[in-house]
Amino acid sequence: MLGGFADKQLSPLEADAVAIHVEQCGRCRQAVREQQRVQHVLNSFQPPPVAEARWDQIGKRLRAELEGKAAPLKLKTRTHIESLEPTPMSVPSLRADELATPFQRSPEPPRPVIRVPSTNARPPAVTVLKVRSPRHRDRMGWVAHVVGAAAATIIIALGMVPVYLNPQPVAMPIAPVAVAARAAPTAPTEPIALAGPEDVSILDVEMTVPGYNLIVSGGDADDVAAVLVVPSKGNG
Amino acid sequence: MVGGRRQGDAADEAAERDARRDMDLVERLKKGDAKALDELYRRHREAAYGIAYRLVGSREDALEVVQESFIHVMRGIQMFRGQSSFRTWLYRIVTHAALDYRRWRALRVADSLDSDISTEPAVQSGDRSPQDAAADRDLGAAIDKALSNISEKNRAALILYAIEGMSYREVAEVLGISIGTVMSRIFNARQRLRELLATEIG
User: Fold this and answer.
1) Alpha carbon A84 to chain centroid distance?
2) pTM of this prediction?
3) From A2, A115, B94, B162, which residue has the greatest number of CB atoms within 10 Å?
4) Residue whose C-alpha is closest to residue A4's, from B154, B186, B192
């Protein structure tokens, strides 16, 4: 394409598409310049001229053969005339839709966004061990939604019972992961299950923090069905 | 822009006129008209020589290729059906004849170990100064040498385009390949020339 562009042999549509690319790509711009430079040198150099007498000599020889005045010349070349007449060719060209987005890579699928818990006591080192495939995530997503919604309904319902029975302010736990992390130095011996913390939004990612395994599962980017903080073997 | 279009239209009209004239001459040649042969020869001999020279690399060899090509035309004119222009047909014959001639000569050299083969890349200086002529001779020799180091297929495509000023479509017709292949062959040939002529081109 670059050679055709340098020689102005492309269709207007093709030339426009290449021009857009060449404008942005220094390497291709350089290649086009080099092609034009070589072409200029070739254009300026002509084969050695032939004297008119020599042309006449050949002309006379041809005529003598045509008129039968000379014996047919024995040729050094064997050219198959019958196969040399070109037939009209169908020349494939780029379609308009192929040229609409020239030199553009196909769009990459969006990468999953992984956000770590936004708690004050978040451990500094977090190692992602495994990210499940998007297909698996899609399959499990609706289950997590149902489970999460049911759990939230139950918690809200249970929370409203004391309000009805005793209308006093109730201290609600906040940032459960922070609580779990603060408790971590004391090395809990049993897994701590935290359901639906609003400030944790990690999707189906299993992580390890030094001394503990933090397992987050279910839900989607804005809703986590369950978080488990489990002491690692070395800590137990 | 308008001027450019008018120029292009004028060139197209001239090319069409030339093609029609060629076809008239071809029809006359089919009937054995020697004057038609003379005119066809005069109209196309320089272009045929330019192609042949680039492919065989010497003036006398190129002239021999031109002579043989026109003999092929004379002997095969009854088979020409006019599906392409005469010019395209002739250039195709010249290209094939030149490549065939090179093979014939290579065999002859191998057989006889004949070292007395002209390799003249001579450029006649005409009215130019001796310095200019010498510079042309040097550049010409360098280009000839570089061209001989390019693959035969790429060289043929480049020569038809660069020497004869044929369009990519015409080159495709002459060589019997697609325009995409013509494009890549010419591009590769010039890339290679750029490497080989790094000193001369700068």
Assistant:
1) 48
2) 0.53
3) B94
4) B186
- How many Å apart are CA A180 and CA A193, to the nearest integer? 9
The confidence band for B128, taking pLDDT boundaries of 50, 70 and 90, is: very low
Q: Does domain B1-114 have CATH number 1.10.1710.10?
A: no
> Residue A21 is encoded by which pair of tokens?
């690319």
| Chain-chain contact of B168 with A49 (C-beta, under 8 angstroms) | no
Closest listed residue to residue A48, CA positions, set B115, B122, B189: B122
Whether residue A15 is predicted with pLDDT greater than 70 in this model: the reply is yes
Measured in angstroms, the CA of B178 and the nearest CA of chain A are apart by 6
How is chain B split into domains, by residue range?
1-114, 127-202
Q: Is the pLDDT of residue A92 over 90?
A: no
Return the higher-pLDDT residue of A103 and B110.
B110
Rounded to whole angstroms, how far apart are CA atoms A191 and B136?
89
* Tens of pLDDT, residues A24-72: 999 999 899 888 888 888 877 778 899 999 999 999 999 999 988 888 8
What residues of B are in contact with residue A50 (Cβ under 8 Å)? 49, 59, 63
ipTM for the complex shown: 0.72
The residue behind tokens 């680039």 is B54
- From the options 1.20.1730.10, 3.60.110.10, 1.10.10.10, 1.10.3720.10, give the CATH code of B127-202: 1.10.10.10
Least CB–CB distance from B41: residue in A59, A75, A80: A59
Residues 47-76 of chain A with CB under 8 A from chain B are 47-50, 54-55, 58-59, 61-63, 65-67, 73, 75-76
Mean pLDDT of A74-94: 60
* Helix (H/G/I), strand (E/B), else coil: A217: strand
A68 near B187, Cβ under 8 Å?
Answer: no
